[in-house]
Structures are given as structure tokens and as C-alpha cells.
Amino acid sequence: MPGKVITITSGKGGVGKTTVTANLGMALAQHGQRVAVVDADIGLRNLDVVMGLENRIVYDLVDVVEGVCRLRQALIRDRRVNELYLLPAAQTRDKTAVSPADMIQVCEQLRREFDYALIDSPAGIEQGFQNAVAGADEVIIVTTPEVSAVRDADRIIGLIEAQEKGPGSLIINRLKPDMVRRGDMLSTEDVVEILAIKLLGIIPEDEAIVISTNRGTPIVLDGRSPAAQALDNIARRIMGEDIPMYQPAREEGFFSRLARMVRGGD
Amino acid sequence: MSAIAKLFKRKQPTSSQVAKERLQLVLIHDRVKLSPDVLERIKDDLVTTISKYLDIDREGLQITLTQNKRLIVDMPLRERSARKRSG
Question: Tell me, what DSSP letter sits at residue B25?
Fold first, then answer.
């Protein structure tokens, strides 16, 4: 059975696409899947450092496209799990070095060799994004509960639907349950209602992410932290498992509120 | 603020409610690609056309786009023409 190519995109930068790609790739590999993660952000490569594989790059995506090397030669094996490979972006070139047709061809090869290929899209809606979605079977949109990120996600959803890649599914990243409870952050329900697409997962804000990125160790590798659990759940949903949605912002019950008042703190 | 004053104070919307409303409005414009500038031109054209038949109040004219993509035009008539119509 050919594998599935899934592009992770957002419109807005800085919402966590690369972290999500690295961790979903790692989590899928932990569950025994053969996985390739592809950095499509040519000129601004980052998936390599987030994964801690930056010192092992020899060839990159542009080399593959230009026939300098074969796909296999450019793939960097992640030794921490069984079947996880990184196809890095070129750092010294720009997005015009690759065309959507090139990407479709690369995705075709990846589909033959892997169960999942996850493509980390650059921010924006220009050629880099067009390249990243060209060969995709499915698209995952990452957003945060902020007006700017949700607005950009809506724009991306429109573009994906226009290309008949849609409707895509949604990951809400960096949710702060306390702020949602206070009415100071858009809730999961708000975002899903506004964007009207299928929710794939909710990742709570978690300091452990910063630490894992500092170390180049994707958080799902060492972790029972809330974000690691949320990411693992998303990976399992991608594999078709029916995992109930994490509900970080569920209304606090009367008794727990009472207990909190008695304890006299938050 | 005293407890009583608080009781009578109208409840302010939370910042997330404000965010949601602002988003919904801006997305309507994004989705149908209707810029404020185009909206103004639509207003002008409407006024030109309707004015041939009725005396309308240009200042009171309001056009809104609802969430389910309905364009609603609220066009008040001037007193004089309203009376003319009934008579």
C-alpha cells in the first residue's frame, strides 16, 4: 500500500509547525511506522535543528530535485527510533529552486518507501507553501488561539480547498486552559466554530517544549508532559485510532472550585 | 467599586468574546473578498439607483455582511418621501 503524504502548514509563522512536524514524525515512528519528515522551507531550514540532526546533513531537497544525489542519499536516518528519516531543506538556496512539479515527483518516491511522509511547510501563501502542498494527500493546519493565527488559518483553508486538497484538519497549539477559563483566550470550541473544519488535536502550552527544542530532542521521546501526550494522541489519530479529544478547558466543577476556595489558593 | 455598584454594572464581554466577534467580522470580508473600499462603491451605486425613485438618507445607509454570507442593506428613507409614500 502506498504511503500517505501529509503537509503541515499554518499561514502565520511561529505557531509551531516545525515542532509539530518533528514530534508527529517521531511519534509515528515510535508506533512502528516508516516515516520521512521533509523540510520544505528552503532557505530557512529548521526542522534539522528542532530534531537535533543538524550535524549530519550532507545532501538536501534541492540536491535531490536537481539530480545531484538520489533521494536515499539525502535522507538522514534518526537513530533514536527505528524508521524515521529527515529530508532537509537547502539553506543556501531559495524557494524558486524547487517547483510544485518537482515536489509532486519527490512525494511520489516517498509514498513508495514510507508509510507516512510529513512535509513541514514554510509560512506564507507564496511559492514555498504551494510547493509544500503540491504533492500532499492531506493537509494539517496548525493554529494558535489568537486572532492573527486563526485569520491566517482561514485563508490557508480557503487556498487548500481551491486546490482540492481540502478540507484539511486542524491542530490548535499552545492553548492555555487557565486563560480560556477566565475568558481571556479563544477556546477550542470558538476556533473550531470559526474555521469550521475537523479538529485533529489540541496541544496545551507547555514549557517542556522549549526545553526539548533547546536539546534537539523531540518531546515525545521523553515524555509524559501534557504536550507530549497531546502529540502522541494526534499521531495515533493519524493512524486511524479513535482517541478521545483532550479537554484542557473543561469547566471546573463545583466541588473542585470549593476545594480550591477552602485551600485558599489557585 | 462597591459590591452594589458591581451588581448593577453592565457585564463587559470577555476579551475572548471580543476576539471571536472581531474575527468573525474580518473573516466575512476576507472570505468574500469585499474590501471596505468596494463596500463604499456599492453604497454609492445603491444610492444613485434608489434615489431615482425615493428620497433616501445617505448618512443612515448601512450595509452589513452576516456570518452566513448575506448582504443586508438598511436604507432609511427621508421623512418627506416616507410621507409621500403613505399619501
Answer: H
Q: What is the DSSP string of B34-75?
A: --HHHHHHHHHHHHHHHHTTS-B-GGG-EEEE-TTS-EEEE-
Q: Which pLDDT score, from 0 to 100, does residue B86 have?
A: 47
* Chain A neighbors of B11, CB-CB under 8 A: none
Residue A167 sits in a domain whose CATH number is 3.40.50.300
Distance (Å, rounded) from C-alpha A121 to C-alpha A17? 8
> What is the C-alpha to C-alpha distance for residues B3 and A261, in angstroms, rounded to an integer?
20
> How many domains does chain A divide into?
1
Give the minimum alpha-carbon distance from B62 to chain A in angstroms, rounded to a whole number. Answer: 24
pLDDT at A235 over 90: yes
Neighbours of A45 (CB within 10 A): 22
User: Cα separation of B25 and B12, whole Å?
Assistant: 19
Q: Kindly provide the ipTM of the predicted complex, given to two decimals.
A: 0.81
Domain that holds residue A116: 4-263
pLDDT tens string A173-223:
999 999 999 999 999 999 999 998 999 999 999 999 999 999 999 999 987
Q: Which tens digit of pLDDT belongs to each residue from A108-117?
A: 999 999 999 9
Could you tell me if B83 lies within 8 Å of chain A, comparing CB atoms? no
| B24: chain A residues, CB-CB within 8 Å | 194
